[in-house]
Design brief:
Oligomer: single chain
Structural class: mainly alpha
CATH topology of one domain: D-Maltodextrin-Binding Protein, domain 2
Shape: globular
Distance between the termini: 63 Å
CATH class of one domain: Alpha Beta
CATH architecture of one domain: 3-Layer(aba) Sandwich
Strand order of the largest sheet: 4-3-5-7-6
Number of helices: 37
Radius of gyration: 30 Å
Number of strands: 7
Strand content: 5-15%
């Protein structure tokens, strides 16, 4: 350490690095105090954190966490650590504590990207890199309250640094480096199972490095001995990592290997499917285009990072001694994204699942900028100032330092100024939009203003904190003194912010398109899940909006105030077939107050359909269609209206439009099949059945339709079932689900391949 300090104490870039790291250490936790809760924290991670804590606190007697299979498969290192702190220190605001701890992991990631960049290019490269990462709005925003992807990315980056160090120490690996690598690898794995990727990196690049160094004597006795030594080191690192994983992960303790295989299999076929706004349309996460992740990265990271990566490819491969490490770095940020694309992984929420690939990318960018500056120095006849500071001899003052030239100062200061100039957009976004830094789109996407209705904005629901606090501060008390009902579909996070005010408020779950059918006084909605065309229309936000939470002037969350409950009363009557006419009267009253009340337009349209008055129904449903052409329930009801008008062609056109917009809207397929069967159009009915199978929406109601379809063709029930199983097998085979395909082939009596 003394030697390290002696070599660097006169290097201004070293001190700049230290100063920035210290500033970031205090700044990140301070910034995290304003953060809202993510969508996963309250509903999933917090309960699991308590379960894990109770497991350890009771010496393994409380096994509740072992039954929580979904969360157990994800690990829970961060959760158990933070919850333990709340118990040890009697912390009430668990949310804020988690966010502070989360920010520390963000800082750890910044530290290790800087250290790796320093190892590759020097302290200047380190400074460039930590500036680029800290001023990456998406990374910064997730540093506050993403205890899964960010923590995993941080531990992966630290582990990657020690993989680099371990290989760099060849042929004399240090035990201290090995231990650090094992610790961070374990923490990465218990944050997300994919942390095992560190071992793949270690083995792969160790082998390549060994071959490069020993290509002329690969079979010598000493070389074989060296291979054996490294094999023992790698095995030892693996065993220590494995032991730490078992100690920190209760879910795998009883049967580690078996459970890990189960986790790997489960994570490889993750079944969750969520609708995502991408390129202006709502798409299911398991049907997203192959370029979803790479494009999302490209349009939501600073342009400066993209330029830095280009410079990395231009300059960092030139020196022979740098090529291996350039490839090492390239592989660590390219391979994860490639793997997501290649395996058609089920991803969502932008590129947060690939966040661990971003820090190595930033290292490459920082190294690229530094190499450009070195090239400029060479062209101007300036010896690299950093090298001179580190490698000067004792005649230069006795500490290895030489004075920096004026020209060198200009180049070095100028490089920082240019870098910050390239980051003006992200800086402005961070300053203007804290704590919603992660809602960032760069110039390639046209900025955040152009992203509304095109891409997901507040997909992690951070803004529900500000919205909840506004309601608490501004809600008008009810005349009868009863509780103020706050409707939202983000109840998990909203409940937390109302936890100290339950005497006045009652949060309740409602969906956006069903809000008029529910009882509420105020409502909180992020723009996530709302029809993109409606978001871009002049009808959004609706007239009863009393507050918007905005990023760059774009609403990411709205607060509604209900003027009266006429539409709600009408919805209650609508549920009773004997009161449909009374419901219509109330809906008309609601529309007289607000002609654009989409819930009332849908409700009155449904009432007219159910009373066989399709023309009256279409008067209102078409108005709804004008406001929001993508409203699936309204379009579905329009199709029903045309069925009542005996215009089956128009009805089918509408239904097929719903299918294209939402391939998993089962009701559209069901009604279309019924209409095709009505016309005895068996060929098109069969196509609909296949579509339903392919989108995993085939349930008992479709089985009954399938039997009807076969009966109409005089096919007996046993044959119908065999044909069904055969079709299901083909569908699963087509989607790469081999186990399910094999099961249905067996049911159909088909021999396995």
């Amino acid at each position: 350490m003394k030697e390290f300090f002696r070599k660097n104490k006169k290097n201004p870039w070293f001190w700049a690095f230290v100063a920035l790291i210290v500033v970031f250490f205090f700044l990140l936790p301070l910034m995290s105090l304003d953060a809202g809760n993510s969508g996963d924290e309250d509903g999933f991670q917090w309960p699991y954190a308590e379960q894990i804590y109770n497991y350890y606190a009771t010496g393994g007697k409380d096994t509740t966490c072992l039954q929580n299979e979904d969360m157990g498969m994800h690990g829970g290192f961060f959760d158990q650590f933070t919850y333990a702190l709340t118990q040890w220190f009697d912390v009430d605001n668990y949310s804020q504590l988690r966010h502070i701890c989360n920010s520390i992991f963000g800082w750890i990631c910044v530290l290790f990207v800087g250290l790796l960049a320093y190892k590759l290019g020097g302290w200047r490269a380190g400074v460039f890199t930590i500036i680029l990462l800290f001023l990456s709005p998406r990374f910064l925003g997730h540093s506050f309250n993403n205890p899964k992807d960010l923590v995993y990315a941080s531990m992966m980056m630290a582990g990657l640094y020690y993989v680099f160090s371990f290989i760099k120490e060849y042929p004399q690996p240090k035990i201290s480096t090995s231990i650090k690598l094992a610790v961070f690898a374990a923490l990465a794995i218990v944050s997300r199972f994919a942390g095992f990727l560190l071992f793949a990196y270690l083995v792969l690049f160790l082998i390549i490095y060994h071959i490069i160094i020993n290509k002329k004597q690969s079979l010598s006795k000493s070389n074989v001995k060296l291979i054996g030594k490294y094999a023992l080191f790698v095995i030892a690192i693996g065993l220590v990592t494995f032991g730490l994983c078992i100690a920190l992960w209760p879910y795998i303790m009883s049967s580690p290997i078996k459970t890990m295989v189960k986790i790997f299999t489960g994570m490889s076929h993750f079944s969750v499917s969520l609708r995502q706004l991408f390129e202006g349309t709502m798409q299911w996460s398991d049907y997203l285009p192959w370029y979803y992740t790479p494009k999302y990265i490209l349009i939501s990271i600073p342009i400066a990072v993209i330029l830095g990566v280009i410079l990395f490819f231009v300059f960092c491969w030139r020196k022979k001694e740098d090529r291996f490490w350039a490839f090492f770095l390239f592989f660590t940020f390219f391979f994860p994204v490639f793997w997501i694309v290649f395996t058609k992984a089920n991803v969502y929420g932008g590129w947060r699942h690939a966040m661990f690939a971003y820090p190595p990318m930033v290292v490459a960018a920082g190294w690229g900028f530094d190499t450009l500056v070195k090239w400029v120095e060479a062209k101007l006849g300036i010896k690299n100032e950093e090298l001179r500071m580190e490698n000067g001899d004792a005649n230069d003052g006795g500490d290895g330092a030489r004075p920096v030239s004026t020209k060198g100062i200009i180049v070095n200061v100028g490089s920082v100024v240019i870098l910050l100039a390239l980051l003006i957009g992200p800086i402005r976004h961070i300053v203007a939009n804290h704590p919603y830094e992660y809602v960032y789109f760069n110039e390639l996407a046209g900025g955040t203003k152009k992203a509304l209705g095109q891409y997901e904005l507040d997909y992690y629901y951070h803004s529900t904190r500000a919205a909840s606090e506004w309601v608490i501060a501004n809600a008008e008390p009810k005349a009868d003194g009863s509780k103020i009902r706050v409707g939202t579909w983000h109840t998990a996070s909203v409940n937390y912010f109302f936890r100290h005010d339950t005497a006045r408020f009652q949060p309740t779950f409602i969906r956006w398109y069903e809000k008029e059918n529910s009882d509420w006084d105020y409502a909180i909605f992020t723009v996530t899940g709302i029809s993109p065309k409606y978001l871009r229309s002049p009808y959004f936000p609706p007239k009863n909006t009393v507050k918007t939470i905005e990023v760059d002037g774009v609403p990411i969350c709205i607060i509604l105030k209900r003027q009266d409950k006429t539409d709600y009363l009408a919805a209650q009557m609508k549920n009773d077939n004997t009161k449909l006419d009374s419901a219509i009267v109330l809906y008309q009253q609601a529309l007289a107050q607000d002609p654009d009340n989409i819930g009332a337009l849908l409700g009155i349209g449904e009432c007219y359909v159910r009373t066989n008055r399709p023309d009256s129904a279409l008067l209102y449903l078409d108005r709804y269609h004008k406001i929001d052409p993508e409203a699936e329930m309204a379009n579905y009801m329009r199709a029903y209206a045309y069925v009542y008008k005996q215009d089956l062609k128009t009805a089918l056109d509408i239904l097929h439009g719903i299918e294209e917009q939402n391939p998993k809207y089962a009701g559209a397929y069901q009604l279309a099949i019924q209409l095709y069967l009505q016309q005895r159009d068996f060929a098109n009915a069969k196509k609909q059945f296949v579509k339903v199978m392919d989108v995993d929406r085939f349930d008992d109601s479709f089985v009954q339709l399938w039997l009807q379809y076969n009966q109409m063709q005089n096919i007996d029930q046993n044959t119908a079932y065999r044909q069904l199983y055969k079709s299901m097998a083909k569908s699963f085979e087509k989607r790469g689900k081999k186990e399910e395909a094999a099961r249905f082939r067996e049911l159909a009596g088909i021999k396995s391949k």
